[in-house]
Amino acid sequence: MRSPFSSVLFVTVILVSSTFASTTMSINNSGVVGGKWFDYIVIIMMENHDINYTYGVSNPSWNKGSTNTCLGNCTYYDLLANSNVLAKEYTRDGINGCSIGCYVAITSGYGDTTQGCNDFPPPSPSCSLLQKANIVDSLEGAGLSWKAYMEDYPMQSGCSNTFSGNYEPIHNPFIYYADIWNTARCQYIVNANSPVSQTTCGLTPLPTDSGFLNDLNSASNAPNYMFLTPNRVDDNHDCNDVSVGNAWLNQIVPQILGSTLFKTKRAALFVTFDEPGCTNAVPTCPPSIPELYSVWASNSVTKTGFKSVNSYTHYSALRTIEDNWRLQPYLNATTDGAANNMQEFFL
Hints:
Distance between the termini: 35 Å
CATH topology: Alkaline Phosphatase, subunit A
Structural class: alpha/beta
CATH superfamily: Alkaline Phosphatase, subunit A
Order of helices and strands: EEHEEHEHHEEEHEHHEEEH
CATH architecture: 3-Layer(aba) Sandwich
CATH class: Alpha Beta
Shape: globular
Largest sheet: 8 strands, mixed
């Protein structure tokens, strides 16, 4: 967790440009063995709220005395969860160094990222590049394709560790890995949207993630693994009130589920949060609980109207992806390797 603007003046900026634009980069998935439950996945990670703040009775005028209610308008959070499948006991499970530590955990199984990496992304004196195997290694080793889509990314494609506009490098785990940073793999970290002028916690305007959506509507450009990072307004990071995140999900998720890929292929969407709590001290948040809003959705591969009370973590989500595509050995034998996968949510 990082205060919204604490590190803007101090972080070192390093940009590695790429000549490959997301709208022209072709993906070749020929010859790849199909997944057990899905052949494509989109992962969206929201920020800094537990399930108590994002699911339940909407409270548009919430205050520090509100309990067991959504902090703002959460009507779409509720609709998405109730229409699809909700993991009611999904937690971060003691992962260190969140925010970025949670993003690293769900992409590598490593749970001990240094807290300083939230203020000074690598390479920096406070945060060294991680010499860790990660999901990109596993995907590419199996002949599977991937892309990471960043809202408000300061470049069309490449690696950027600068706090620029509403882009948060601490929500981009891929630039933290030594075998991705400053390599040809950077071309698969791309801008998700055209820039808009967004007021903090304001409901309009919301960015249209055209770069991401164009890929979803093109069989040749859609990679198997897609990680979509909203900007720090859309993901609720800067806003204790969840209404903006609710509005953003209400805009983007129907377009995901209505895309060519999701209507014609075995594709799954996973929406979760990095950690519980709130970002800002004002207004004061109600008491937090450890469980995180976590939903699987699809048109054909997941159940509907199903809620689970089994315990899951970010390692479970990673294990599910590994088991789906038979990506063994597991990245970390004691974390994702020891976690339960989430197979009960699939048909």
